[in-house]
Write a structure and sequence with these properties.
about 25% strand; 10-stranded mixed β-sheet; single chain; globular; 7 helices
Amino acid sequence: MIREHVLFTLLSLATTSGLATGAAPQINEQPLRGPAIIHEPDQPATLAPMPLVLLLHGMGDTQSDTMSDFGLTDAVSQLEGFVLCVPTGWKVPPVFPPLPALAGLPFWNASPACCDVAQLNVDDVTYLTDLVDTLVAGGNVDPRRVYAVGFSNGGFMTYRLLREHPERFAGVATVAGSIEVMATPPTEASHVLHVHGELDNRVQLIGGTVFGGLIAHLVDHVSVWELIDFWLAPAGMNYTFTVPPPLELTTSGTGNPDTTVERYDYTAPALGSLEFWRVGPLMHSVPQGTAFSGLLLDWLFERRQDGEGTPDCIAAPMTTCASDAELGAFMFNDPAGPDQLRLVAEGIPNTPLVHFSYSLTPVSPAPPTNGPCLCLTGTVNRIASVHADDYARASADFPKADLDALIGAGSTVHFQTAHMNSAGVFEFSNVLVVSD
């Protein structure tokens, strides 16, 4: 079940959030902007805060179209266990020469290159960071797992948010976004995924001007290769470059890859990376293959702001603890580390969500069954919240980023899953390690 509500914005251009009293946080309405849509999975307050995905539309796009294009809908938010926030930009005034067709379209004041066409100088940065602060203050959002995703003008805006507030975002992803020429390079490491179509003739790979130069005050945007150098600036030459296998972003399921991948991982400072997905047949649009949203979320959720997961996946106190038979454990012996670990919980009743968690704390011979639960001992990370299938099973993949960063040969990791039964009491399910 999804709790869908809206957040409104203030009447002033320079937005400053003022929270209303009561259970549901709200901000006053801006008539020329409209509400932000929030999709929030309905889960018990005792479970860990969830990731937040801030999804930003392109100029003139609707919120519903943007959710559909990215495949980030309320159903996906529920299934993957994250909060989805889809705001809307300010609207171009009714009379705006020389392009009257732009009148009434929502836009983001993202960059001198795109797309404050009427030069209103709307403070979208404050507006959007206020939305994030409001959701974090509500208690359901993990501040270390906040992500921004944007298309076109929304991609420009995503990059502006990261440039001005890198401390707020664990990672960002853009499709057909860019920055203005002569922008000041960042000094802090970040995680950036850039997706761009080779056939994009609006925000071109080689750089250029949006609207074909018809709006004189909009400056050029950089090429994708200049953009890569821009985000790699904090690393200097301290990064590794790899070319992973190609992806299918527009031809999902055909066996015909259409997207090349370039990966840059910081070696110093830590916690920085960049990936470029170059989509061969794509014009100025979001890839519509069925695999895109899953690959996008996987990329985002493998990145956390502090390199670790969320501690205390289920908050104390709990009246029930997992028994030895309800816990799983796995020892990693490969010095190179595992590529992936898939966990499966069996015997799940008809329940909305199953919550996977793991602990790296050494426990011998096993976590206590008559004391604190596994979730309350040591370093705990929540992997995922997923639905059980028709066979009463649920599975989750252990994030590769965690494996690389936290687990070495000889480490033992303890696992459990929790779900709430019809009486509102947490129960634990047997966890089977399937593969590594």
